[in-house]
Design brief:
Elements: E1 7-13, E2 25-32, E3 35-39, E4 42-46, E5 51-54, E6 60-63, E7 68-75, H1 92-104, H2 108-122, H3 137-146, H4 154-160, H5 165-176, H6 180-197, H7 202-209, H8 214-222
Antiparallel strand pairs: 1-7, 2-5, 2-7, 3-4, 3-6
Helix pairs in contact: 1-2, 4-5, 6-7, 7-8
Length: about 230
């Protein structure tokens, strides 16, 4: 189903007509006066230069002492969801005044482009995230196995893949489901079991896999998985 086009208008508010809700976003930008706004029981004041985003389904009511004039955008653009928590930038005031004049003078092009201009000015698109450096886990595994006798630390592993220790720790938890040292410990235990299956003495296996003593290796091999 094709959604209705977004619509800009200038509205004057006075006494309250009761609360209501609608199925589209409603964006209000104060032009003159002060509008008392209540959305789902939460009140706020909308003066000239202020703005508010009312999301679909939120019950709301307006009231002004005397009168208040606002630029109103009724929009079906879901991106307004991300602007609702951000206050309207004060730089929107000149744009709101221009679009209000465009509505008053029936300028079709300004009214057509106005919704997109308001969204861009209120909530500019986020900068694209830089592609993350991929970790070649197979290559890192081979390197760690080749340095099995050394007392490797998180910083050593992180440096190998050109990340900080904090970045590597986060990526290891995300991609391997465990901390870097747990990943390294499991790697060395796998190697130790392989060497023992070939008949190598415990002392030699401990030396090759970085354990501080044969007894430490024996205890690690007897420990239940995951502990």
């Amino acid at each position: 189903m094709r959604l209705p086009a977004d619509a800009l208008s200038v509205r004057c508010y006075g006494a309250s007509h009761g609360s209501h809700a609608h199925e589209h976003f409603q964006i209000l930008l104060g032009l003159d006066g002060v509008l008392e706004l209540e959305v789902d029981g939460r009140g706020r004041r909308l003066a000239a230069g202020d703005g508010a985003v009312i999301v679909p389904g939120d019950r709301h009511d307006f009231e002004a002492t005397g009168s208040a004039r606002c630029l109103v955008l009724d929009s079906h653009d879901a991106r307004w969801q991300y602007a609702r928590e951000s206050p309207a930038p004060r730089a929107l005031a000149p744009l709101a005044s221009y679009l209000a004049a465009a509505c008053d003078n029936a300028l079709p092009r300004a009214r057509l482009l106005g919704p997109a201009l308001l969204l861009e000015a209120w909530a500019p698109p986020a900068e694209p995230q830089r592609a993350r450096r991929a970790i070649d886990w197979n290559a890192l595994t081979a390197w760690a196995q080749a340095h099995g006798r050394e007392p490797l630390q998180v910083a050593d592993l992180a440096m190998r893949v050109h990340l900080s220790a904090a970045q590597f720790t986060a990526r290891c938890r995300e991609e391997q489901g465990q901390s870097p040292m747990a990943w390294l410990r499991d790697l060395r235990l796998t190697a130790a079991r392989h060497f023992r299956s070939q008949g190598l003495p415990v002392a030699e296996v401990a030396r090759r896999t970085g354990y501080r003593s044969p007894s430490a290796l024996t205890a690690a091999l007897r420990r239940p998985a995951g502990r």
